[in-house]
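Lecture notes, part 5. Sequence design as translation. It can be helpful to think of inverse folding as translation between two languages: the language of shapes and the language of residues. The source text, in structure tokens, appears below.
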């Protein structure tokens, strides 16, 4: 990959920061911060204290806050050169999803470096990103370089569940750290996607809203050998089947339209909006950027009912992962209710609105410029994330987040497949690229 060279001194400093990012990433992976959800999580506190120590070494004055015993986050606010300029937030999460060692090539919490990558759970999601941020900030503080406005850092617990012990807690209980912040960057954007000669860099300008729901059917308990006209298990099974079989219509939001236009321009092709599923398949890795964001979705993920084979239970329940595009929340819930029917009720396990950022504004332009400065062949495009992040919590207090953790990736590395997947790993040169890009971008803040 052709990249722009800086002066020798700057180049050496960037190389040192890149090497530091690799070490920090490996160390963070070795902290098992598995989050199984619903409060069942290993404490983030040891990892948080490690991060705080790295920041304290360079005078960042971090604060470790706990929402519950062991459920810790790290906050820091670094003064900028101009107190009147808006503050800027960089946030990320310390927790990871579970990993079964039997499925992995290397132990998932080893942080092993092999084949040009750091391996382990969280390498992509998102301890590699935290390492890039820490290495960049540490370098800037050692060199006495400040952002124009205050730089706020948040390394958070519990993103892999609802954020109740992390981002929701800090925006509620420690809002003073975020005073004057209107924009932020966080995970899932700025990575390269090989497109047969073009390198696409999607920058997230939004994400679908979250509607995690618990469904309940009620009926009359009785003997399994007798007629059961109001069997809640059967009622729930029919409702879940209707929900799973529903073909959600395409809804092209402004963010998705901007992505399709950007891809068509970058690839020199036409994307037919009337057959987007086929177009996503035709475009391969690039098509995956919009395949999951052109419509709403409701995926049943759990069923619970009964306690004995010859007993019809009085209740049955299911859980559904619902996601909706910006501006479609009411339509989404009305459709869900129609599909469930009158005998199945729903309640929210977690609900968050769909945040969106401006793909035409100066911050997007600065992110894109930082990418192009390090990779002249970069084609940045806006995109909408299918899943969700802590951006939703910060959206509640008026902070708009862009998904931006820049990585230069080889064409053979399945970035999307490694999110919550097996053999998660991040390339060493990808981390080096990210450190350089982040440093350039922070110069604009």
């Amino acid at each position: 990959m052709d990249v722009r060279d800086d002066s020798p001194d700057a180049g050496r400093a960037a190389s040192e920061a890149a090497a530091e990012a690799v070490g920090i990433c490996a160390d963070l992976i070795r902290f098992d911060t598995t989050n199984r959800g619903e409060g069942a999580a290993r404490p983030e506190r040891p990892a948080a204290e490690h991060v705080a120590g790295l920041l304290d070494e360079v005078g960042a004055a971090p604060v470790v806050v706990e929402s519950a015993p062991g459920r810790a986050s790290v906050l820091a606010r670094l003064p900028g050169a101009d107190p009147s300029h808006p503050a800027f937030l960089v946030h990320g999460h310390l927790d990871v999803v579970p990993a079964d060692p039997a499925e992995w090539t290397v132990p998932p919490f080893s942080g092993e470096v092999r084949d040009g990558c750091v391996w382990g759970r969280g390498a992509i999601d998102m301890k590699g990103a935290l390492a890039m941020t820490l290495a960049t900030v540490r370098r800037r503080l050692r060199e006495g370089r400040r952002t124009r406005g205050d730089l706020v850092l948040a390394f958070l617990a519990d993103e892999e569940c609802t954020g109740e012990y992390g981002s929701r807690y800090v925006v509620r209980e420690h809002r003073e750290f975020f005073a004057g912040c209107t924009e932020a960057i966080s995970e899932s954007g700025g990575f390269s996607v090989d497109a047969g000669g073009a390198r696409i860099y999607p920058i997230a300008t939004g994400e679908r809203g979250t509607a995690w729901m618990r469904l309940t059917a009620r009926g009359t308990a009785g003997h399994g050998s007798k007629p059961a006209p109001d069997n809640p298990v059967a009622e729930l099974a029919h409702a879940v089947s209707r929900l799973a079989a529903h073909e959600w219509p395409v809804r092209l939001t402004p963010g998705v339209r901007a992505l399709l236009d950007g891809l068509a321009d970058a690839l020199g092709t036409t994307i037919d909006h009337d057959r987007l599923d086929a177009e996503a398949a035709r475009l391969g890795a690039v098509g995956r950027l919009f395949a999951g964001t052109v419509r709403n979705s409701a995926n049943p993920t759990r069923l619970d009912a009964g306690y004995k084979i010859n007993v019809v239970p009085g209740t049955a329940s299911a859980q559904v992962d619902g996601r909706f595009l910006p501006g479609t929340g009411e339509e989404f819930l009305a459709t869900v209710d129609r599909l469930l029917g009158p005998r199945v009720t729903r309640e929210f396990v977690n609900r968050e609105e769909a945040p969106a950022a401006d793909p035409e504004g100066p911050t997007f332009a600065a992110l894109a410029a930082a990418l192009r400065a390090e990779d002249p062949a970069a084609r940045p495009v806006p995109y909408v994330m299918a899943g969700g992040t802590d951006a939703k919590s910060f959206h509640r207090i008026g902070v708009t987040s862009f998904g931006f953790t820049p990585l230069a990736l080889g064409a053979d590395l399945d970035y999307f497949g490694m999110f919550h997947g097996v053999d998660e790993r991040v390339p060493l040169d990808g981390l080096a690229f990210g450190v350089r890009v982040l440093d350039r971008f922070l110069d604009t803040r």
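The translated text above is only one of many valid answers, since several sequences can fold into similar shapes. Confidence is low (pLDDT under 50) at residues 1-5.
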